[in-house]
Please model this.
Amino acid sequence: MQKGNFLRTVLVTAAAVAAFTVTPCRAELTITGAGATFPYPAYSKWAYDYNQETGVRLNYQSIGSGGGIKQIKAKTVDFGASDAPLEPKELNESGLMQFPMVMGGVVPVVNIKGIAAGQLKLSSETLAEIYMGKISKWNDPKIVAENSGITLPAEDITVVHRADGSGTTWIFTNYLTKVSKDWKDKVGNDKAVEWPVGLGGKGNEGVAAFVGKVDGSIGYVEYAYALQNKMASVMLKNHDGKFVAPTAENFQAAAAGADWAHAEGYYMVLTDQPGATSWPITGASFILLYKNQANPEQAKEVLKFFAWSFKNGGKSALSLDYVPMPDAVVKMIETTWQNEVKDSAGKAIWP
Amino acid sequence: MNMKKRKIWGDVIFRGLTASFASGIAVIFIAIIVVLWHQSQPSIQKFGFSFLVSMSWNPVHEQFGALIPIAGTLLTTFLALLFAIPLSLGIALFLAELAPHWLRTPFGTAIELLAAIPSIVYGMWGLFVLGPLMADYVQPFLKATLGFLPIFSGSSMGIGMLTAGLVLTLMIIPFISSVTRDVFLMVPQPLKEAAYGLGCTTWEVVRDVMIPYGRKGIAGAVFLGMGRALGETMAVTFVIGNAYHLSWSLFAPGNSIASTLANEFTEADGQVYLSSLIELGLVLFLITLIILSLAQIWLRRSAAGRA
Model:
C-alpha cells in the first residue's frame, strides 16, 4: 500500500514536471523594445492588454531616448523609442524609419506659498528669462505685470531642470529655442544643455521632488507627474497669445493642427503650435524601426502590436494622461509601413 | 616520505592559488586604466589638457571640461572628512576606552550597521529630511551669524555642497569609527597602564599614547572613508543639486564626478560626449590613486622620522 502510494506520487510528479517543461514549447512570442521613459506607462499598459488578448509579450526597457537610439542601432532590440525625433538625414544614414506613437505635454510647475495650480501665468519670454537667470525674484515687474490678480513674494526663484539627458528636456528646450532668440544663441536645444542657472534633478520624479521641497522653485515635468504629485502647474501664453492651462484637450489641440503629411520622416515637433487652445509645450514620442527587416515574421509581430495599440489603446492612453494619435495620422503611418518596411527580398511586410 | 611529498605539493598549489588571486587584482587594476584610457581617447585628443581646467559642460556644442565635477568631488569629500574625523575619533574613543562594558557591544554593532544601509536610502533621507531642515533652520542660522563669509551666502535651498558633505559625513563615520575603535583596542594594556601610573589623565593617555600608537591604523581608517566619499554616487546625486556652476558658497548646488556619470551616462549620445564621461571616470581613478599614494608616502616618511 505504502509502496503503491509512493509510486503514484512519483508518476504524478513526473507528469506534472513534463507538463511544465512542455508548455513553453507552445512558442511564446516576445517582442523587444527599448528607449524613452516618457511614454513607458502607456506602452506597458498596452503591452499588458495585448498580452491578455494575444499571448504575445512585449519586453520594453525604459532606459531613456538616447539609450533607445543606441540599442536599435546596435540591433539588440526589435524597436527603439525616442522622444526627440531623428532628423531625416540621420534616419537615411542608419536605414531606420520612425513614426509617432503617442503624444503628451510638458508642464512648468511652481512651489510658491499661496499659489495654487493654474494661478500663475507666464508668457514665453518670461519663462525663457527665468530659465536664463535674468529674472531672479518672483516679484519681478515682468512677472507681476502678467499676474495682476495675485500677490507674489519677494522670494528668490530657484530654477529646477533635469540632471540626466532626457526627451522631456529636449521638448522643453525646443520650445524655449523657438520663443527666445537669447536662449537659441546661448543655450540651444538638446536632451541635455548647459543650464545658465539652477538645480538638476534626476528624472521627472527628481525634478518633482526638488520643486516640492524647495520654496520659490520652478521646474518642468511630464504632465502625468504634475497630476500625480498635485503640483501647481503654470498657465502659459501660447502662439496665438492666449493663456492656456495644461490639459489633455489642449495637448490634443496642439496636435490637431500639426501637418504630419508634409513632415519628411515624421520629423515634427509639436511645440509652439498655432491654435487658440493649443498647449505650447506638447511633444510626440517616436518609434524607430529598421526599414530592412532580416526576420520578417518578427517584424510583422512588432507592427501588429503597434497597429493594435493605435486601434485599441486610445482609451487607456487618455486615462494615463497621454494623447493618442489622430486616426488620419494612424492611417498615414500604416501606409508608410507598407511603403518602407520590407523584408530582405524587398517585399512589403505590412499588412 | 610520501607524506612529506604530498605536503610540499599542497603548499605549492596553495601558493600558486593565492598568488593568482593577488595578481588578478593587479591585472584588473591595469585593465581598468587601459580601457578607460583607450575609451577616452576622442575626448583627450579633442580637449587635451584643457579638459582638466575648463568649466564648460555643454552637450549642445560638445564642449566638455572637468573642473566643476573635480572641484565638487574634492570639496564634498573634504567637508565629509572635516566633520567625520573628529566625530569618528570621539566615537571610537568612547567605545574603546570610556563606555561601560555592557554598552560597548550594542553601540559598536549599531554603528557598524550604519555601514550596511544602502546609499540610496541616505540619499533619500538627505533629500526629504536633511534638505528641508537645512533650508528652514541651519542655513538661515548660518547666514544670520556668519553670513559675512562668502561661503555662507546665497539662497537657502537646502540642496547643495554643504548638504552633500553632511550626508557623506554620516556615510563614512561607520567606516572610520569602527576601524579606529579596533586600532585603539590593540594598544597594549601595559603602555596605557604605565602612562596612568605616571599620573596621566585619560585625555593625556589618549593624546600621547593611544593616538600616536595607532596613527597608522587611524590613517588607514581615514583613507578608507575618503575612498568611499570620493566615489559615492547615489547619495550625492540626490542632494548635491547637479548643476555646473562654481560658487564660493557652500549653499550653492554643484556636481561631483560620480553623480555626473550616474546622471548622464545612459543618455550620452555622440562619441565626444561619451568619451568625455569616460575621461571623467579616468580622472576620478587618478585622483584616488594620487591621494592614496601621497598618503602612503606621508605615512612612511613620518614613521621614519619617528624612528
About this structure: Residues 80 and 166 of chain B are 6 Å apart (CA to CA). The beta strands of chain B are 57-58, 63-64. The mean pLDDT of chain B is 90. Chain B touches chain A through 32 residues (CB under 8 Å).
